[in-house]
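Protein modeling request. Please complete all fields; requests missing the sequence field cannot be processed.
Requester role: graduate student
Desired output: 3D structure, token encoding
Chains: 1
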Amino acid sequence: MQNNEVDLNENLVIYTHTKINLDFFNPAMEHLRPLNMVQEPLSALAHSQTDKVAVIVVNELAELTEIPISCEHSIVITAKNNLTPLPEYLSNALIYQQTSNENHQQALEKVFNALIKTYFSTELFLEPADLYQSDAFEKGQRYINIHSLQEQQLMNENVKPLFSPIGRDGTVILNFNLHQSSFSLDKIQDLTEIIIEHLGEKFDGEIFYSCNATSKPEQSDLIYLSYLSA
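Delivered output (230 residues):
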């Protein structure tokens, strides 16, 4: 589907006081639309564009309570939550809380590969408006949980515990980071049916999917399973 939220040749801005290494992103190795990744201080959030996707990296959510933010579709990466309620102008934020063994850099790279690349893909991709209008956004503060899996892992019974936190009307995102030669709509259908089987007949939420082609052979069968929770 055509994405009207993201323009060609635009900057993806990462707002943070922490020094981030952006060398992990190599446009020549990714099948994405033209994209520059830049870093700005948190103070620049006041001048962010309302119709863009912004990435915000902070140590804890309390850092954002006094900063005016213009962007509608923000993805916040944080090390700690401390149960800080987000201000009203961040009601459309997605929060990724780092795991105990992740730093800001690792978390940014995971979120970029699992979600952000879908906004800039030249193949099948997810419109920010679709995700931010899903039923899961009616529950207040939303966290995005991300699991990196191989295809065979998703078909294994041991993956069931990953689905237990997903609510009846939750939102699931399947990001297939597959080599173009191995990707097919039939494969998406098969894996989606497996997920629905795990979640049960009472699941009434939404499942989005995306495919990011890559030139990195080691990622040829990697799948990011993400879901939103309150």
